[in-house]
Every structure is written in structure tokens, then in C-alpha cells.
């Protein structure tokens, strides 16, 4: 297990470093940097327009942000400051405010959205998965399975548009966009229900499908017969043997889905005007606030990669075959 | 030099056999022709068997028909409309759907519901179809009578822009039919929808094809030769595979512009890996089979063994993977469009149309309905089709 863990962590660090390097160089090769905007227009965007920028100011800026030095040097300094938990300052969106402060303002709502979605999908996915497997080939199962296929194919943003138009606009049951409350109170949560729903259908359908397939296979297997033969009740056998076997792919899938929710929520945040991380990401790109873009992208990368390592390690603990590196097919 | 790797590694062969000098090998010459025993039943080839199981599943067949229909519409759809994809009518924006024939049955008749003050009713005589409802708005001045009326937007546009029509700037909309409505620039949404389908399909299929070629070559090399090359490639694939795609997507598109080319490049970064992995596993599984050994002993070259004897086993995995790549690419493209990174004008993609519809959702819902239906149908039929193929190719399900 120690060897496996070390292997995974090493691989993760390597991936993270490669990703950081690629993102850094891609961002810095974008043609339209803030600096050229300053020189071209003689004033920063939102800086009053037409403010006079002298050569001296440009030089000072170049020196301060090390834009005059080669990219690898810049990368080195960035790594050093990141290690000291200094992520630079926002240049345009909120000029001269530290990046982490900007992110901290937008992070909570994104986390809330993702967390609530996760809290919703797991119980519902489990419920539908187990019931469809136990009631296989009934009307209920057929209806649920058709819905599952439909929702696996319907992109969350199309679902969001449907919900927004019918439930919010036509029926007026929910607010159309997120309530502008500062804290998470009932009004805000209530307005968050539609985005959460829009994000949930796809993962619930996925969990249901996986669990149904795993359980139906387990229910007809020999170990279930054995469990029944040694005197366990049907319920005991399902909980203790069938469900436990279905756990391995399930955990992998849930963590994988969470990454999907995180990225899918970018589009959902746009649709419901949620001031989360995606707004920062898109706006910072549009106004060339690259220190902010960089930090936001790294945030997403860190979350994605940490979830994938949690998945790897959890699976390694649960299933010895995985940590021994054995592959079924070889 | 062509070293018989498999022979050397085969632990089942005796030492005597392995150390036999090459010149003592002799091909067996058969004196008489050997015939297989006659089949008692009708011989069923692998392909035939797959086809049978494919046809047996009704859902898959329906999905295949839908796939075919969507592809055909992607090819001919844009030409069916009397307007071209980029033709703009500046005065005829956001007109609701109107189809000749169907309009007599109360659907697709180019009407929309508006709320007006009751006193203004005479101003709407020119386009009025029916009065749906009378109600009161309660304000500070007391109750104001309001009407909810259904008007023909085409007639209304003709009335409002009568001057321009007279001057020949705008065509007369009373006889015009935008089958799926028109967008904010007065372009025909029917033509644009199928053009967008075409663009999305081209993207999906070319990504699938290129990924297939790269994955096939690398996967078969990894699987067949194994060893160090395989190990190094595995590490590289793992690293590339775990790079989060969307940050890359955002940056690449900003850097290169959102053309088909940059989206292609984007989907190529990681897309080939799953194909390569699938092919590699198949090679590992089949390369030590007896018939491969037999082929080798008869002097077949590596390439021949790889592509003639081993690869056909992986056909099912590969075809399924390709069928499932298409919907995922279309989905990703649409997601990127929502971030404002969709394919650039003038050519639409489904994602761009969806975003456009989303922006006009509350006032003009018809703009998102059709692209929404098409993308769901597209994903649904490709997913079901892919799953059906997987089942058909899976020998474990053979009855």
C-alpha cells in the first residue's frame, strides 16, 4: 500500500507540474497582454480611459511583474511565490487586490453549489440504482431506465434552460437567477435549487445505471446463493455482499462525476448568473487579468487532480487488485 | 532482422526445440488437400453474427435510423431552406417559426402572444389573430385593463417596416416562412440548425477518425512489443491523460481562435489515449495465442501478424469507442460555447445556437427549442447506437 500510495503521489506531482508549465506558457504566449493594451490605448481598461502612461510607468510595471525577463525565469519566480502562498494581485478586475482575496469572495458559492449537488446525487443515485436492480423488468424499472438513458444524453445546460423557462419563468415557482443575498440563507438556497437540479440529473442517471448493472450481476452470482444458503436473509445478503461488491466502481464513478459537476457548473453558473469561480475565470480572460486567470485555472487543476488521487487511493484501499497493479485482462 | 520473440519467450516449448538451428526448419509439404468437415448447419461468420445481434435489438436499430437521419439532415438540411445560412434580414429578427401548410392547424403559424393595454388594441388590428385573455394590472392609479393577444409577428413586421419594404430594402415578410424562426440578425434558424449539426458532426467524426489512427498505431505497438517502450508510453499516456482538459481548452482556443482546427487539436490531445489503451489490452490478450504462433512459424512479418491476425479481435472495442466519441465531442463543444468559446461566426455549431437560444430564452423560447431537441436526439441516438454496437460485438453475450 505504501508503495502504491507513493507511486500515485509521484505521478500526481508530475502531472501537476506538467499541467502548470503548459498552462503558464500558454497564458504567456497569448498575444494580447495587459501591457500592450496599456501602451496601445494609453490607459488600462476601466482605468478612466485615456490616462497617460509614460515610458517610465511601463518600465516600472515590466520590472515589478518581471515581464522583461525570459519565461522560465518568470515561471521560477511564480513557483517560489506560490509556495509561499502568495498568488499575486489582480490587475484589472479588482486592481491591486490580492488574488486570493478575489477568489475567496467567489469560491464559497461555487463550493456550495457543488457540495449541495453531491449531497443530492448520492442518496438519489443509490435509491434509484438499488430499487431498479431489485425490481428488475417491472414497469418501474423500464420507466426509470428510459429516464436514465434520456438524462445521460441530455446536456445539463439544456436541462437548465428547460427548468429555467418552465419552473421559473412560466410557473414562477423558483427565482430565475440566483438571489443576491450575501450569506447563505433560505432565500439564497431556494434560488439555488434550480442550478442544483440542473447539475444533478446527469450524475444521478449515471449512478443509477452503474449500480443497477453491478447489482443485477451480483444478485445472480454464486456468492449470493452461498450467503442465502448459510442462512442470511435476503436483505442481509444484499447489504453485506451484493452492495459491497458494487462499491468499488461506484466510488470511482462518484469522484469522477464530481469532477464533471465542477466543470459542468461553469456553464450552469453562467446560465443562472451565479457569481462563482467561472465568472472570475471568464471575465479575467476577457480583460487579460492573467494573474487571476492563472490562479483560477490552477485552483481547478488542483481540485481535479486531488479528486483523482483520492479516487485512486480509496480504490487502492478497497480493492487489493488495484493496488497490486494487476489488470483483469492481462 | 526479424527475431521470433514469441518463440523465444514461450516457456511451453522444450529447450531442444528452441535451440534448433534455423537451417533445420523445413516447411511441411502436404501431399493431399485437407478438407474441413461439412457444416451441418448454416455457417455463421463473425460479421454475420454481429449483424444478427445488432438487428435483434430494436432500440439499437431505431437509434441507428436516427443517427442516419441526423447525418442526412446535416448534409442536405441547410439547402432545404430557401435562405442561406448567413443571409441576414435586419428588419425580420426573432420571428417565430412558420411553416406553410402546418400554419392552418394552429402550430408553426408565426404567431406570438403579447400583453398590451386594452386601449391600444386598435394599433394592433393589422396583425391581430385572437384575444386570448382580458385582465387587469393593479398599479397606483387603480386597475388598468390589459389584454393578452395573439398576433401574427410576420404581419406585424410587415406593418412596422412598411417603408423599408416599399423601398425594396426588406422583402415582404407576409409571404415569408422561417420554418424554425429567425435569429437576432434575421437569419433562418432552420438552415443554421442543420449547418450547425453538420459542423458538430464533422468535428465529431474527424476527431474519432484521427484519434482512431493514432491510438491504433501506438496501442498496437505498445501491446505487441511490450517491454520498455510500452512502459515509457504508459507513463506518458497516464500523464497526458490526467491533465484537466478544460483549462487547456480555454487557453488553446483563446490562443488559436475558435476554429474547427483548434477544436480538433484540442480533442486530439487526450482522445487517442483511450483507443490506444483498448487496442493495447487486446494485443496483450491475443498475441500469445496459438494461431499467432502458427502464423509466426510460417514466417509472417510483424506487420502482418499485427494487422491481419490480432487487430480484427479488437474491432468491436474500436468501433464502439469511435461511436461513443462523437457525442462526447459534441457535448464538449457545446460546453465550450457556453463559455463564449464556441466556433466563430459566421458558421454556427450546435453549441453556439444553444447559447444564442439561452440568451433569448425568456422572450423567444423557440430559439433554443430546436437546437435543444437536436442535441438531445444526437447524443441519445449516438449513445444508444454505441451501446448496441458494444453488445453486438461482445462475444460474451453470444447466444
Largest sheet of chain B: 3 strands, antiparallel
The biggest beta sheet of chain A, please? 2 strands, antiparallel
Q: Percent of residues of chain A in beta strands?
A: under 5%
Work out the helix count of chain B. 15
* Radius of gyration of chain B, whole Å: 31 Å
Strand order of the largest sheet of chain B: 1-3-2
- Write down the Rg of chain A: 25 Å
- The whole-number mean of residue pLDDT values of chain A reads 82
Helix coverage percent of residues of chain A?
over 70%
Low-confidence stretches of chain A: 42-50, 326-330
Structural class of chain A: mainly alpha
Kindly state the number of beta strands of chain B: 3
Q: Give, in spatial order, the strands making up the sheet with the most strands of chain A.
A: 1-2
The H/E string of chain B reads HHHHEEEHHHHHHHHHHH
Q: How large is the share of residues in beta strands of chain B? A: 5-15%
Q: Whole-Å distance between the termini of chain A?
A: 21 Å
Uncertain runs of chain B are none
Q: What separation lies between the terminal Cα atoms of chain B? A: 44 Å
Chain-wise SSE layout:
The complex is a heterodimer of chains A (330) and B (399).
Chain A: H1 2-28, H2 34-41, H3 55-64, H4 71-83, E1 89-90, E2 97-98, H5 99-134, H6 139-153, H7 156-170, H8 186-219, H9 222-229, H10 234-271, H11 277-286, H12 290-318, H13 320-323
Antiparallel strand pairs in A: 1-2
Helix pairs in contact in A: 1-12, 5-6, 5-8, 5-10, 5-11, 5-12, 6-8, 7-8, 7-10, 8-10, 9-10, 10-12, 11-12
Chain B: H1 5-9, H2 15-18, H3 46-56, H4 58-80, E1 111-117, E2 128-139, E3 142-152, H5 153-160, H6 162-166, H7 189-225, H8 227-241, H9 245-256, H10 260-286, H11 290-297, H12 302-310, H13 315-341, H14 350-359, H15 366-393
Antiparallel strand pairs in B: 1-3, 2-3
Helix pairs in contact in B: 3-15, 4-7, 4-15, 7-8, 7-10, 7-13, 7-14, 9-10, 10-13, 11-12, 13-14, 13-15, 14-15
